[in-house]
Task: structure prediction
Amino acid sequence: MEFDSLAKLLKHVEKNHVRDIMNNEMAEMVKDEEQKAIDKTVYDAYKPGTEDGEPWVYKRRRDNGGLRSRDNMKVDVKRVGDGIELSVENVTKGANGYEISEGIEYGNGYEYTSNRDGTADQYTSPRPFTEETSKQILSRDLHTKTMKQALKSRGLDIE
Result:
């Protein structure tokens, strides 16, 4: 396929490739990085003194409908100005039916602020997993690498 202008080439790539890449490869990369950030920033940051390292009051759901579950990471791709924006929002709900990600990220909204082993500050303090996800993606240039790899896998030589 040949193009007589850069504008036509860009329109073709956006229409036929970029949205699909954003919804698939890019979204999956973000979810991978968010899971790693949740492990590091949330679960590893608060380990109760129980034998199994799990909280006394509840069992962490992790990949089973919990914060780490990919099913709770909702993807939205939309046009913004001249570009396309990808957002991945963690919509995990707690036992009371409210979304828990903001409370974990910023450390607010906790009903209980103490626990039996005196370590409540570990779970009520901010554990910014979204910020960590973004930091890791940017520091390793994963967004650029993922887009290039996805375009190449679709037969576009971009180097």
